[in-house]
Amino acid sequence: MASVEAKDYVVFWNFWRWQYLSRNAEYQKEFLKSRKDLEKTTKDLLKAYFRKQTINSDILKSVVNILDDKTYRHFRLNDFLKKAFSLDYDVDSTYFIGRISLLEDSVVEYFQDYFGYPPVDPSKGTNSELILNKLQGGFLDKDIFLPDQLPHCLDFSRIDDSHINYVMCLNKPLDQMLAEIQYLYNSSKQNSFNNKLTTSERDELLNDADNAYYEIAKQILLNKGISFEVKDEPRAIGLWLWDFIKHKYGNKKLPHKAHADTIRLLKEKFSIDRLGYFNSESSVFRNMYHRTEACINSFEVLSMKGESRKKKTKR
């Protein structure tokens, strides 16, 4: 299997980057805009197809939700529209899905290019209090807190029943490259069970795939200059401090005692000693807050040491 160091590094980066990105104001704004664009396009398509000047808001909401379900929308859309509009004939689902897909592709391309991540609902970011409580209990399962959506770039070809000829372009956005490696990893696993391989052959293939994903993914991160200590506690504390202050004060100028009061509440609410910071001074927690803010502003997993305010510039 892949080294613990490489696997921990990649899983750690993936988890914390999503926490920061989901809290980034620009990402949130662009996601909401993409949703409004989808609703408007869907509404216009419904009006044109059914020749109606107005579309019931409940119907519009239901159609948008169905279109979000990319796996089953072809099957669900016709049935819903026939019932909603009391039709005795089938609806041409491809009329809607084809046009919506064009919009989706352009949105995904924009998000991938600018944020290095697909458009995922930022409300799926994990509650920082839950993260701290999990850490206090001694275990944080990062996989269950990650969204299901990933960028898709499938550039491969099967050359026989048991191998995959795969080419990865290294000039693509970081997340896209990682997604391609993930696909190779998953394909190799699936391939091993779909073919008549011996147990040892299957185990070897799975081990190779596991190593390929984590070792290559870590190297990509390091080549991009993304380096950090794999330690959850300071990031979880910093995230909770940032969330609390953001919720309480919003975008207002912070009062003089905002940080001190929030740090005091942190110590009252959580077992800081179990997190390894019982004797730490307030300046340590302030730095966690500012480094978290820098990570959110840059939507990247920066070091928890160094300058506090590093802002993102468009690539």
Structure characterization notes:
- The protein has 315 residues and is mostly helical.
- It has a domain at 27-114.
- Helices cover 61% and strands 2% of the residues.
- It contains 11 helices and 2 strands, in the order H-H-H-H-H-H-E-E-H-H-H-H-H.
- Strands 1-2 form a two-stranded antiparallel sheet.
- Helix 3 (57-68) runs antiparallel to helix 4.
- The longest helix has 26 residues, at 25-50.
- The radius of gyration is 23 Å and the shape is globular.
- The protein starts with a helix and ends in a 17-residue tail after the last helix.
- The model is unreliable at 150-171 and 309-315 (pLDDT under 50).
| Unreliable stretches covering 5 or more consecutive residues | 150-171, 309-315
Q: How would the global form be characterised?
A: globular
Q: Helical region count?
A: 11
Alpha carbon gap, first and last residue: 35 Å
The SS-based structural class is mainly alpha
> What is the subunit arrangement here?
single chain
| Strand order within the widest beta sheet | 1-2
**Beta-strand segment tally:** 2
Helical content stands at: 55-70%
Note the beta-strand portion.
under 5%
Main sheet makeup: 2 strands, antiparallel
Radius of gyration: 23 Å
Overall average residue pLDDT = 80
Spell out the helices and strands N to C: HHHHHHEEHHHHH
